Inverse folding.
């Protein structure tokens, strides 16, 4: 059975996503999480866990910040809290989280999500054999390559199924620095309406500057209506729907459509065509499923 992982915006969204067929939620918190649709105060985590248990939802927490030396004490305190709450999973990208989690007996809760790094089954298997719970496959490889990883991997792996994809993160405040350089006083921090546009491309790439730095997202929105069956058949069963730049209604709609396709109530191609038309401004595409993003030297 598939595991649909979604990003709630409010506490009340937990019941909503469950009613629409979500199996897990990914919770962000201030400081420790990056690129989360909403940062829930750590004081609310106990209540969120209790509500998830009531609804039979798995509760994953994003600890995907990259930590410097002075921040390790705060990380340890946060991991202690997550152990006390008994969360179901902890997303991470910084290897120090793996080391610190071992000290708390949390290694089996970890989900390795390093964005672009996981592109073959050997890497996935290495981390799973180390004793962590799950690995997120890179979103920049093709559908064929993802499915091969799914078939060859003995253990749990996840793919980002739907939403804008993160393409770049810098700890520098690039937008503020640029505005300062050109002598303009513009509000760019935590502004989700900004985007980059290349001269020769008809798409916009959202760019966000927040307390963790600057993030650039794809100029398209990934929709996997036509690919989910093949991904599931390959052995991949964890699918994440990210609502960044949208709202909970957007997430619920996507959940409904994927369930309708899996239940054979709707045709995948027709769903994709209608969805791409409805969200025309989002440039809905198949992402990198059919396009190699690296060049191999011939000869």
């Amino acid at each position: 059975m598939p595991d649909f992982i979604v990003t709630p915006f409010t506490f009340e969204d937990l019941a909503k996503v469950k009613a629409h067929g979500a199996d897990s939620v990914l919770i962000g918190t201030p400081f420790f999480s990056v690129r989360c649709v909403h940062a829930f105060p750590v004081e609310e985590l106990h209540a969120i866990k209790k509500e998830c248990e009531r609804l039979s939802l798995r509760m994953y927490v994003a600890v995907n910040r990259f930590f410097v030396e002075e921040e390790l004490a705060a990380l340890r305190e946060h991991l202690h809290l997550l152990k006390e709450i008994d969360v179901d999973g902890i997303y991470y990208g910084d290897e120090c989280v793996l080391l610190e989690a071992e000290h708390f007996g949390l290694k089996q809760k970890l989900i390795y999500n390093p964005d672009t790094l996981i592109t073959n089954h050997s890497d996935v298997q290495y981390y799973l054999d180390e004793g962590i719970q799950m690995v997120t496959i890179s979103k920049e490889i093709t559908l064929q390559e993802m499915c091969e990883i799914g078939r060859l991997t003995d253990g749990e792996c996840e793919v980002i199924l739907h939403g804008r994809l993160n393409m770049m993160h810098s700890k520098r405040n690039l937008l503020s620095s640029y505005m300062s350089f050109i002598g303009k006083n513009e509000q760019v921090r935590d502004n989700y309406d900004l985007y980059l546009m290349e001269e020769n491309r008809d798409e916009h790439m959202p760019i966000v500057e927040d307390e963790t730095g600057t993030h650039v997202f794809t100029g398209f929105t990934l929709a996997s209506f036509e690919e989910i069956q093949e991904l599931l058949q390959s052995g991949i069963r964890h699918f994440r729907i990210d609502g960044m730049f949208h709202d909970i209604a957007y997430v619920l709609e996507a959940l409904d459509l994927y369930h309708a396709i899996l239940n054979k109530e709707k045709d995948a191609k027709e769903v994709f065509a209608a969805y791409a038309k409805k969200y025309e401004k989002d440039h809905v595409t198949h992402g990198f499923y059919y396009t190699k993003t690296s060049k191999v030297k011939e000869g």
Notes: The first strand starts at residue 3 and ends at 6. The chain has a mean pLDDT of 93. The longest helix spans residues 248-262. The domain at 3-165+219-285 is CATH 3.20.20.70 (TIM Barrel).
